[in-house]
């Protein structure tokens, strides 16, 4: 496999496919944080586009969309971080990249014009208006703070300030590693409210004098797993711990009156992917109640009023949203769908008016679109489909929920993409999600890396949601704890067997891929079964011992494995793919990012070594400027092209009977 893959027919095909899907430079193909005020003519969102060629990577900008016409207008040329409307809808707060590489800017805008702005050193990760709309709360990550795995899992890049040969020095300490709270009254400079050794992961106003915050006493990414809920005095910055969770917390939101704090409490594997129980703290008594959300694992919450919480989440294959009334202690579902989903990483929607919501919706065969929901009915405000998107999407098969039975009788769900006009068994790609506490949804096919292209070429694609996945309740998610690569691996193998038994899949042509935890599983499964003909782990874990000692999140494996990383044997050995040979020769393509701190590239090297010692053809591809899961461009395009190349040669084309003879073997 060549280092420069751009002249290959696979790269050209993938590049053409994604160029059609994502559009020409300047076209907005995706977005997040859609917000607006009831009755206003304009809505706002952060849109994604390419400023130049697709190889240059994506940009995020602030956009306005006109209600009625759907006309989209760019409001800023700065890289967007966060946006939030004031309670009365008159001012828009906009956090963006500042002039310097380690400086961010916070602006307030009215009618598209900047009213006030202030620069801060660091990265603004969250903004929130005080209930009276007179102050802004900011969560600011230090200029050298690590990013979460879903945002790349690397330390923020710093400008070169010295000779290239000088070493990097890590001390594990420094002011620029912490996340702190700041308050800005829209005049003059912002005021820093908190300081180390208090690290603030997320926060919101709780009334006008207090702030609800998720805090830890260490800045390391792994300390998030043991973070606690605190109330911070908006004047002094003094923090008081009010709740220590059993597991993890996310989506902390104080209500306008300051007497209640809502949050999601769940067993989690990733910061930013919190899916579970809607919990409500009574600030006066300290009691925490769990709301009945009609079987929906909650992933997004906002206060619609002082006594009404808007929430969104997943229930099995459905994406759903509704409201929970504190006065009546009852939830009302407003919308649910298998045909559509929303949210960037997890389902997310924003309340508007008394009972409506705003979100950016999508499905496998439908490009993202801005949507407003009222009484369960969706109105499309603006489509983000590119001009060539329909033609690129048409041959990529159809998706449907798929269910099968695990060896212990548990029902397992997932999503199945079948190619068009198929008449017999096809090759199969199994794409395992990360986490493991996450889930595949009915997402736009552009998010499938090589999956959609393979479907257009006659492959079936299975997106399994084994135990450990979200949307099935706390017990189902928690079932993976202490058993990574155990029952969840058997869930996936049984899904493959079910497809073979139904005559949908060729038993000799099954491949597996996935990123992060899916990368671990892609390296692990060939050591557990002879079912797979090829494996493509991306950002995998190969060795839990070295993962614990080199990753930014050692707390993760301490929670998920039953034995100690300081003892020999046990789970740290028995569940490490690098310590086991493959059941048969399984050609293995392993890809990773060189600056990944969530699953460092040494993990990919150990998987490569184990594959070679199993006698398998193996290729190791390390992208020098990429972080976790290779989501940036052009790495996303290049990795998809290499997947096509690998599968064509080691599994064979869909209309063939086995591996192709052309090309080298890795």
Automatic annotation (TrEMBL):
<dbReference type="InterPro" id="IPR011042">
    <property type="entry name" value="6-blade_b-propeller_TolB-like"/>
</dbReference>
<protein>
    <submittedName>
        <fullName>Dipeptidyl aminopeptidase/acylaminoacyl peptidase</fullName>
    </submittedName>
</protein>
<dbReference type="GO" id="GO:0006508">
    <property type="term" value="P:proteolysis"/>
</dbReference>
<dbReference type="GO" id="GO:0004177">
    <property type="term" value="F:aminopeptidase activity"/>
</dbReference>
<keyword id="KW-0645">Protease</keyword>
<dbReference type="Pfam" id="PF00326">
    <property type="entry name" value="Peptidase_S9"/>
</dbReference>
<keyword id="KW-0378">Hydrolase</keyword>
<dbReference type="GO" id="GO:0004252">
    <property type="term" value="F:serine-type endopeptidase activity"/>
</dbReference>
<keyword id="KW-0031">Aminopeptidase</keyword>
<feature type="domain" description="Peptidase S9 prolyl oligopeptidase catalytic">
    <location>
        <begin position="452"/>
        <end position="652"/>
    </location>
</feature>
<dbReference type="InterPro" id="IPR029058">
    <property type="entry name" value="AB_hydrolase_fold"/>
</dbReference>
<dbReference type="InterPro" id="IPR001375">
    <property type="entry name" value="Peptidase_S9_cat"/>
</dbReference>
């Amino acid at each position: 496999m060549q280092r420069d893959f751009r002249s290959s027919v696979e790269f050209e095909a993938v590049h053409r496919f994604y160029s059609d899907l994502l559009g020409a430079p300047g076209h907005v193909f995706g977005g997040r944080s859609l917000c607006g005020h009831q009755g206003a003519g304009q809505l706002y969102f952060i849109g994604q586009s390419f400023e130049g060629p697709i190889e240059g990577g994506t940009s995020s900008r602030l956009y306005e969309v006109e209600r009625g016409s759907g006309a989209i207008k760019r409001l800023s040329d700065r890289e967007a971080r966060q946006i939030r409307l004031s309670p009365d809808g008159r001012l828009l707060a906009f956090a963006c990249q500042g002039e310097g590489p380690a400086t961010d800017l916070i602006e307030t805008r009215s009618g598209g014009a900047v009213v006030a702005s202030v620069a801060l050193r660091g990265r603004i990760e969250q903004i929130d208006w005080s209930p009276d709309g007179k102050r802004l709360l900011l969560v600011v990550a230090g200029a050298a703070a690590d990013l979460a795995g879903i945002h790349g899992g690397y330390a923020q890049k710093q400008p070169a300030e010295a000779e290239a040969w000088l070493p990097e020095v890590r001390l594990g300490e420094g002011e620029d590693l912490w996340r702190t709270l700041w308050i800005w009254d829209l005049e003059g400079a912002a005021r820093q409210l908190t300081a180390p050794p208090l690290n603030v992961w997320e926060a919101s106003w709780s009334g006008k004098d207090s702030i609800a915050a998720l805090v830890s006493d260490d800045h390391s990414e792994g300390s998030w797993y043991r973070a606690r809920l605190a109330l911070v005095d908006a004047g002094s910055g003094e923090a008081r711990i009010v709740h220590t969770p059993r597991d993890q917390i996310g989506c902390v939101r104080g209500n306008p009156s300051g007497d209640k704090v809502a949050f999601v409490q769940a067993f989690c594997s990733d910061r930013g992917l919190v899916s579970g129980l809607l919990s409500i703290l009574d600030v006066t008594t300290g009691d925490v109640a769990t709301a009945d959300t009609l079987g929906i694992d909650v992933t997004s919450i906002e206060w619609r009023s002082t006594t009404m919480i808007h929430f969104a989440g997943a229930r099995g294959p459905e994406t759903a949203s509704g409201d929970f009334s504190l006065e009546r202690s009852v939830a009302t579902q407003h919308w649910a769908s298998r045909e559509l989903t929303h949210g960037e990483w997890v389902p997310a929607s924003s309340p508007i008016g008394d009972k409506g919501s705003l979100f950016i919706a999508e499905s496998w065969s439908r490009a993202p679109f801005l949507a407003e929901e009222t009484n369960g009915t969706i109105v499309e405000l603006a489509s983000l489909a590119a001009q060539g998107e329909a033609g690129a999407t048409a041959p990529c098969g159809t998706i449907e929920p798929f269910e099968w039975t695990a060896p212990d009788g548990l029902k397992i769900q997932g999503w199945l993409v079948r190619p068009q006009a198929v008449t017999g068994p096809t090759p199969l790609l199994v794409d395992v999600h990360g986490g493991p506490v996450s889930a595949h949804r009915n997402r736009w096919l552009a998010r499938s890396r090589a999956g959609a292209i393979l479907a257009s070429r006659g492959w079936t694609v299975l997106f399994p949601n084994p135990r450990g996945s979200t949307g099935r309740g706390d017990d189902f998610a928690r079932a993976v704890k202490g058993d990574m690569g155990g029952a969840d691996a058997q869930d996936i193998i049984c899904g493959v067997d079910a497809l073979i038994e139904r005559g949908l899949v060729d038993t000799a042509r099954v491949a597996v891929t996935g990123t992060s935890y899916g990368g671990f599983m892609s390296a692990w499964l060939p050591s557990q079964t002879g079912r797979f003909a090829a494996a493509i782990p991306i950002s995998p874990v190969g060795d839990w011992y070295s993962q614990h000692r080199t990753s930014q999140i050692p707390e993760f494996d301490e929670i998920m494995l039953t034995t100690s990383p300081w003892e020999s044997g046990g789970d740290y050995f028995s569940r490490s793919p690098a310590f086991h040979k493959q059941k048969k020769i399984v050609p293995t393509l392993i890809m990773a990012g060189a600056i990944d701190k969530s699953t460092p590239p040494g993990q990919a090297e150990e998987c490569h070594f184990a594959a070679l010692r199993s006698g398998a053809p193996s290729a190791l591809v390390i992208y020098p400027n990429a972080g976790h899961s290779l989501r940036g461009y052009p790495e996303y395009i290049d990795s998809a092209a290499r997947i096509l190349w690998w599968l064509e040669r080691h599994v064979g084309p869909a209309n063939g009977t086995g591996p192709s003879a052309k090309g080298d073997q890795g």
